[in-house]
Amino acid sequence: MRKLLIICTVLMTTLSFAQDKDKEREEKLKLEKATNYVYEGNELVDADNYISAEMEYRKAISKAPSVVAGSYNLGSTYYEKENYDEALYRLKLAADNSESKEEKHKIFHNIGNILMKQDLCEMAVESFKNALRNNPTDDETRYNLAIAKQCAEQQKKDQDKEEEKKDEDKEDEKKDEEKKEDEKKQDPKDEGDQDKKEGDDEKDEEGKPKDEKDKGEGKEKEDNKQKGKPKPKPGQLSPQQIKNLLEAMNNQEQKVQEKINADKQKGVKVKPEKDW
What is the pLDDT of residues 39-50, one digit of tens each? Predict the structure, then answer.
């Protein structure tokens, strides 16, 4: 019984070892196939056949996701062709599958460059920082990080100015609305209509302005007043002429009286002038 247990144990160990060997061979085979797909993809890229190259890279990724060369190379190819959205997608896949710091450094460095091309400076700053975390000695990445920071700061200033301008525009719109409301409350047209209405009230039944009618009535009254005065007939004196004549006669009568008194003193009689 004891020998049987030993034999079983040996067989199980041998079987397990054999299975591990099979898995190793299988993994090795997958890596070899994935590498071959990557090479084929690279050759297709050199021939500008990007559609076929993408298919080969996809095969490489499906066979061995740990082989990031497929996604990385395809992403780099799209970057060269300025297809930045697709390049960014492929490089992110490569970063997710990569376990090597050196690979991660290259991937995040390229991702940062793509983000800079898309004017996403703040995101590029984070990507370059990730690249330096995996390789702090890379001067090129450090330089790109400094440029990305300057770009992000400038974009922040421009954004603040734009927000400030929007606030000013909103304030101006608000003032314009308030001004329009005030104008509605004091509309000159309404005042003109009111004045017109008041003016219409001053018109008489014939449609003539009352002021004009009053002037006409005043003139008519004055004319009637003048008509009420007796006008001198031809050959007759006017009242003023009669007044002047009476004053002259009084003066003359006074002189005559003085002369009579003087004659009385002398004893001479004179005839008095007749009354008019």
Answer: 998 888 888 888
Q: Which amino acid is at 173?
A: E
Residue type at 83 in one-letter notation: N
Cα atoms in the 13 Å half-sphere on the side-chain side of 141: 23
The answer to whether residues 29 and 67 touch, using CB atoms and an 8 Å cutoff, is: no
Mark out the alpha helices in 47-65 (DSSP H runs). Answer: 50-63
Let me know: does 95 contact 108? Beta carbons within 8 Å: yes
> Which residues are paired to 203 by β-bridges?
209
Kindly list the distances between the CA atom of residue 182 and the CA atoms of 168, 172, 175, 187, 188, in Å, as whole numbers in the listed order: 21, 15, 10, 8, 11
Quote the CA–CA distance of 67 and 133 in Å, as a whole number. 22
CB 144 within 8 A of CB 128: yes
CA–CA distance from 153 to each of 83, 119, 125 (Å)?
Answer: 26, 12, 11
Number of other CB atoms surrounding residue 40 within 10 Å? 17
Superfamily of domain 28-156: Tetratricopeptide repeat domain (1.25.40.10)
Q: For residues 53 and 91, what is the distance between their CA atoms, to the nearest angstrom?
A: 16
How far from the centroid of its chain's Cα atoms is residue 175's Cα? Answer: 13
Indicate the SS3 state at residue 230: coil
Give yes or no for a contact between 270 and 263, defined as CB atoms under 8 angstroms apart.
yes
Nearest alpha-carbon partner for 95 in 135, 52, 50, 127:
127
User: Over the stretch 148-182, which tens digit does the pLDDT of each residue have?
Assistant: 999 999 999 999 998 888 888 888 888 888 788 77
Q: Is 100 in contact with 135 (CB distance < 8 Å)?
A: no
- Residues near 114 by beta carbon (within 8 Å), at least 6 away in sequence: 79, 84, 87, 88, 91
Q: How far apart (Å, rounded) are the C-alpha atoms in residues 104 and 108? A: 6
Contact of 87 with 79, CB cutoff 8 Å: yes
